[in-house]
Amino acid sequence: MKTSLKYFIAIICAAVLMTACTTRDETFTPTKGNADFSNYVAFGNSLTAGYADNALYYDGQIVSFPNLLAEQMENVGGGEFVQPLVDPSSVGIGSDGNARLVLGAENGELTPVPAADQGDLSIFTTSIAGEGPFNNMGVPGATSQTAIFPGYGNPANGEGNYNPFFTRMTTDPVDASMLTDAVAQDPSFFTVFIGNNDVLGYATAGGANASITPVSEFSSAYDIIIEAFTANGAKGAVANIPDVTTTPFFTYIPWNAMELEEEEANQLNGGIDLMLMSLDLSREELAEMGIILPEFEEGANPLFVYDENPENLLGVREMQEGELVLLTAQARLMEIQQNFDNAEELMQEIGAALAQMDFEGIKTAMRKLALKDENALTYDEVEEIQEATENFNQKIKSVADQKDLAHVDVNAFLNKVKNEGFILNGREITPEFVTGGAFSLDGIHLTPVGNVLLANEFVQAINKTYDAHLPKVDPTNYGGVEFP
Amino acid sequence: MKKILLFFLMLSPIGVFAQAYQLNLQGTRQIGKGSTGLAQPTDATSLFTNPGSAAFLDKNGATIGLTGTFTKGTFTDANSNVEYKTDNPIETPFNASAVFGNEEGKWRYGITVFTPFGSSNKWEEGSAGRFDTKEISLLSISVQPTVSYKISDKWGVGLGLAYTYGQVDIRRDLPVQFGDGSFAESQIKSDANGFNVNAGVYYKPSEDIALAFTYRSPLKMKSTGGKANFDVPQSLEGNFPSQGMKATLPLPQIFGIGASYKPHENWVINADAYLSDWNDYDIIDIEFEEELVAGENSTQLIRHYKNGYSFRAGVEYLPEKSYELRAGVIVGVSPINSRYMSPDVPDANRINPSVGGSYIFSENFRVDAALLMEFINRESHNTTSNIDGTYNFDLFFPSIGLTYNF
Lengths: 484, 406
What we know:
- Chain A has 2 domains: 40-245 and 378-466, SGNH hydrolase (Rossmann fold, 3-Layer(aba) Sandwich), CATH 3.40.50.1110; 258-376, no CATH class.
- Chain A is 40% helix and 12% strand.
- Chain A has helices at 2-20, 46-49, 58-62, 65-73, 122-125, 164-167, 178-183, 196-204, 215-230, 248-251, 262-279, 283-288, 330-341, 343-355, 359-367, 379-403, 410-419, 448-466, and strands spanning 40-44, 101-106, 109-114, 136-138, 189-193, 235-239, 258-260, 299-301, 304-306, 316-318, 324-325, 370-371, 376-377, 406-408, 422-424, 427-429.
- In chain A, strands 4-1-5-6-14 form a 5-stranded parallel β-sheet, with helices on both faces.
- In chain A, 47% of the residues are buried.
- Chain B has a single domain (2-405), classed as Porin (Beta Barrel), CATH 2.40.160.
- Chain B has 3 helices and 22 strands.
- Chain B has a 14-stranded antiparallel barrel.
- In chain B, strand 18 (307-317) and strand 19 (323-333) form a beta hairpin.
- Chains A and B meet through helix 1 of A and strand 2, strand 8, strand 19, strand 20 and strand 21 of B.
């Protein structure tokens, strides 16, 4: 019996050991593949800089996608990643000298409001070049053209011909370009994410007072940039640019955002009829003269927009499906709303102008109800922008192929956010403005968790191209928009 | 009645998940031999294990048992390589049983109190599953009056009616942030109760062999006085009104078959098998009673559990001296598909060893001790939440039981 007891105990011990062995460490070993992340430099615009909520501010910079990416690279020999940080307590500064946006309550409704009357101008006036060189060479507003422009930080060039975001961080405001400052660091790895502003500058201006970079100029600038980065044999990732319609900035306000109750529509139509009756005119007669008066209906009505076509004597036209209203048009929409509220007065004005066939008067009155050119993108403008985006993206892809660089399809990524969204560890990320979680309060730049998703697109492309295994950024503790 | 229950609750608040929520901690002596014993009446805990076998107990008596639960769990995110830990307190499930009646007669009766299901799992702050489940506490206690009838020297049947009272508390973070960056939180908290039956048949064709069949009917735990509480930024309070809620947790019906065999006068071998039908634990609707929450009148736990199987074997060494030794193993097949694994109840197919021993002070008083170990290692990709990674849990259940024969 003693022996059988011994066997008994031996079998139990073996069983315990066997089952205990099934518990093991599940973490994987990150590898760098055939890339060298020891000196990573990120090159780009506001999206690289960590600009968010319409300003450059500390919390946004900390979650810039290159900073998140650099943290992952640290697992496989990545070095320190220095960013041109602003003070953590600062309200930041945007391109218009504005402070960052926060979600506030206005008339009981949640709406983005500036955190302060104006931005922190000391950010522009204080050079922090001594804290550099900076691995994050993202400069808000940079285009393919300005990125290679020597003296991009030189205030002596005059307003509009230099970039104060670059002035604060460059080694030499007079002679240096973003590219020379970046390449002087002899990066072993780089990301280039530029081109958005080559179309976006045009797009955010509503197609007014700005132009799209011609594709030939974009291409030659892009070649110069990539040649400079790869001259020392460095590897890197290039990112393409998203379609303009993927961001809430262009989609939050629909083209037919004028919602009318049945009664409101009847009142407006009735007012027009009354006015015409008093003038003894009919809609048909006016139409023959080239004055097509609007008819309103219950539900969604198209917004009006300025029309410069001289044959349109009304001076405004209805927007069409496919045309886009900019998020920044909100202030104008509120003016229009007020003018609608005073419709009676406006009818009188139009009636008086019609009575005298004062076409300028009619135009002036009607335009009180219309978006300005800079508030909207017309169908032609949208097409022009999309064509440029496609051309730029083709160029970016061909450079990536030619140089064996990782290619990050940001366009596909944002289309996925737009069309299906992401479910991240039980949390849904959708493109909706404010509540969706991906876009910050300016409707273009990303939230912290949006930047995590973007950084992970880079991780995926880098891992694939360079046979590396960088861990993805854990999204769990990164947020979206903060609510009051 | 409720006061008594609460007293027990304080003593035995929670068990830890085992084969989903189902616990196997109803008798220390059984635990020591792989939680077997369907076909081997040993003490008053047989009222739970197999009511049909209690009529074959040699002596009336009372048994109480206390089990400690020590758990250490981690989740490793497959994408980020980040590991999160559980922060679980030590729990002490409790059982108490007593059998009365004429030891020579056909009828025996008794009462048993036990924790049939339980789960207590608290993840560290900001863990990967925070938007699914960051903390769950499911506690239950059953009281089961039981009768057992000896039809003949070979056949016994028994029936118990169990009343179960439970409390559930589930917390998760909501993907909405306060101004300071912290996330909003929701909590579902409710009492619940339900009835089910526990029936068993015991058949002993010879001195060396016994067979058993048991059935525990489904237990529908209906909530009473449930609350859904939301802690959200002030500007969103209108979208997340705290209010009453109701839900039903459909716990499984369980079939068991078992055999015991005595190859030698000092040795007993047990082999049991269980089928737990979790199919009703599919989509759990939590209905909000008053107002819509973020536009919805209910929220759902998508679980899609299936059948769980458990095969158990145990061996006892009974030298007829002052000590006894036993050991066993449980092989479990999880009812949870990898696509629906959640941070509330990580589970896996597993092999759980146990060991136990007894010290016999006198004919009427004995102390049993046992240790059950569980090792859970499960890779999962939840297709609803996209939580993708590996759960690793080590669980240790030391148990002590006292039996006094009247």
